[in-house]
Amino acid sequence: MFASLVRPLSKGSQITKVLVTSNNVAKFSTSGVLRKDYHDILIESHGKVGLITLNRPKALNALSSHLFHEINSALEKYDEDPNISTIVITGNERAFAAGADIKEMVGKSFADVYKTAFLGHWGKINDIRKPVIAAVNGFALGGGCELAMSCDIIYAGEKAVFGQPEIKLGIIPGAGGTQRLVRAIGKSKAMEIVLSGRNFTAKEAEQWGLVSKVLPVDKVLDEAIKLGQEIASLSQPSIQAAKESINRAFELSLKEGCHFERKLFYSLFALKDKEEGIDAFVKKRDPKWTDE
Ligand code: CAA
């Protein structure tokens, strides 16, 4: 027996064929292209925005290997889907994600994690070309904070709690936490957070530059989707080039980064959308993007 899902949608939102079976196995088809059965995530499309909702509420969305494989699968499908331009990842009001699944680490030896490249598949999100926005409510701890930081933009609810508490488990962040946090908030604060394992608030995250906007809890997801739709309404090759160029800032010297940016800037002059955008400005009309 099927029941339809799930969360009240904001005006203008659409779910395309989302069904939940009695044993909570979801079958989805968005845009007629993405079609996959998932257990631990929910998939909805909102126009050109693909939404991934982490759905292990009893474990506070702890990021088990299975859950992360499903996130990767949905991200890859959305990245390939010509009807999707931006992606939003969210959780629920209690938890975005409370970290890697600690129970999965019980009894694992160095040889186990080293030989199997434990958490290696968490890096897939870095290969996604389309913009990914995190809509964070509740706990974003450990791997949850790292997942949010792997997204391109973070919107947070005013009660969201961030942190890298791994030190309290006798380990350290293992999915980019030390690297991304220091780049986002600077050395002293990153050291304080990682070495003490203390949590920090959404407001602090915004003041420190980790989060771009703090919103009322019930507005975070809608605003993230709205931002996704705004970005999706622009020329997609230039959006992807802008994302690629900003991300290069983390890898290159300033001189090399500016050089890379200039080459990409030149390459966009090959687009029909460049002619369209400039012509529309000059003629005081709205541009009609073709993504070519
Ligand atoms: N892994 C597995 N299960 C988790 C979990 C996690 N990271 N976080 C919470 N859970 C489970 C709890 O075990 C509990 O399950 P049971 O009901 O079966 O006991 C359920 O979720 C609810 O959690 P709590 O009862 O603990 O809820 P709470 O409100 O009292 O506390 C919390 C909430 C402060 C977030 C607490 O759950 C907590 O501290 N969680 C762990 C946070 C953490 O240490 N994260 C880092 C993980 S390591 C990591 O992420 C490594 C990396 O870099 C990738």
Automatic annotation (TrEMBL):
Annotated EC: 4.2.1.17
InterPro entries assigned: ClpP/crotonase-like_dom_sf, Enoyl-CoA_hyd/isom_CS, Enoyl-CoA_hydra/iso, Enoyl-CoA_hydra_C
Superkingdom of the source species:
Eukaryota
An annotated GO cellular component of this protein is: mitochondrion
Residues forming coiled coils: none
Q: Which GO terms describe its biological process?
A: fatty acid beta-oxidation
Q: Which UniProt keywords apply?
A: Fatty acid metabolism, Lipid metabolism, Lyase
Q: Which GO terms describe its molecular function?
A: enoyl-CoA hydratase activity
Q: Which PROSITE patterns does this one have?
A: ENOYL_COA_HYDRATASE (PS00166)
The family annotation for this protein states: Belongs to the enoyl-CoA hydratase/isomerase family.
Which protein are we looking at? Probable enoyl-CoA hydratase, mitochondrial
